[in-house]
YcjX family protein (Halomonas campaniensis), 467 residues
Amino acid sequence: MRQPLSRELSNLLERGRDRQLRLAVTGLSQAGKTAFLTSLVNQLRHAGVEARLDLLPAAREGRLLGAQRLNQPDMGVPRFPYDPGMVALRDTPPRWPEPTRGISELRLQLRYRPARSGWLTPEIAHLTLDLFDYPGEWLLDLPLLQHDFYSWSQAQALHEGEQRRGLFSEWLAAVEQLDPAGEADEAQLAALAEEYAQGLRRAKKAGFSDLQPGRFLLPGELEGAPVLQFFPLPQLDASQHNTSRETLEALPANSLYATLAARFRYYQQQVVKPFYRDHFRRFDRQIVLVDVLGALNAGPERFEDLSRALRQLMHSFDYGQRSLLTRLFAPKIDRLAIAATKADHVTPDQHGHLVQLLEALLAEPLKDLRFANVPVKALSLAAIRATEAREVVHEGKRSPALRGTTLEGEEVLVYPGDVPARLPAAEFWQQQGFDFPGFRPMPTSSEALDHIRMDAAIDWLIGDKLT
Ligand SMILES: Nc1nc2c(ncn2[C@@H]2O[C@H](COP(=O)(O)OP(=O)(O)OP(=O)(O)O)[C@@H](O)[C@H]2O)c(=O)[nH]1
Ligand SMILES: [Mg+2]
């Protein structure tokens, strides 16, 4: 089939020079971003030698020659801690890389032999891959940009499920007494903001995902700064007397409402916008990592909470097919993968269901992506495999099982349970539930980390650039 002229021109331009790609690794706190990035760098560095990458044609055909780290473009940002991660994984006993506390970047240059030959094709070509890591807590600040203080307060009120409400009960009781038109009392605001932050920390510990503002959980350099002294007013409901947007916005600057709204705007403009502008605006490809099994483990309210958080989040990225012009001036994500992480927590016969469940969880954003004609691949993977699949024979019957070492150091052989293929109905939570232990990484003597389907993910995300 003939390609459109702009595609041909764009291919021609790309073939003559080295290619560059910015990959967004997106995932909430503990979804597996750092493990994925560590494994990605590791697999690419050992491609063609020790890494098992059969599903990546460039590696299978011996054309991928390896990867090296280059100096990153932004010298003010720390380098992604790949080496410390590998040291932890190779420790005795092996440890997982540390949870991420700040932003880091990595630029990787892949060397490969192009599959096609032609007068413009060099013998050896390069692909530069720009990667960056950040604490998952900060990611949920991106959807906050779509709000003003009024709509944000309403959105926060909407999703107070029963268990979640319980974790904020004292704060709620105090805040609901406040009069938005009353004069702001600095000491009271500071105390209530701290109580709100404590509620968010409790909710995080209890397995909830939809938690804003992100810096309340992990303030970084903003620890103790007044910009973090605000909170939503969940009582702002249009049906209530005196709480229409117009009435509230006409209140004087020293009123409670105007003070909180000003701090919200400041947080938006001075904290979230620069984070978005510097790191999230220009991506070519994306992988959304979701700890589906963790949410399944945590019960129905948290599961719904995760689904809502992801729905909001996906609105923060630019998707669409790239034309020659947008490729040069306004990059968009033109292909993405969604992945259920930690697939090594369940037996391989459950991986199909895991993908179906992931698709159900992301049904709404997937519909939008289909509409925008952006190709999406759903898969389950383990960036760093921590278990071995086994079979046990019990009373003459064979059944699948997993062997691994728990985080506490106990060697176990377990069947962690069946994964439902759809969003679980009430009976699932009542009868069966789901329970699995966390596993330690496996000790390894190979340079390359063992994984499940990292090669499929890499192929989908960058394989077309290695032809
Ligand atoms: N079994 C298994 N566990 C994994 C895998 N990837 C991540 N984990 C577990 O999930 C935890 C969190 O993974 P990270 O990669 O640190 O998650 P993150 O998304 O970077 O989290 P933040 O930095 O807190 O935002 C790890 O400490 C492991 O316990 C995997 O492939 N297999
Ligand atoms: Mg991390």
The domain at 5-139+281-384+445-466 is CATH 3.40.50.300 (Rossmann fold). Residues 33-34, 99-100, 133 surround magnesium ion (ligand 2) (CB under 6 Å).
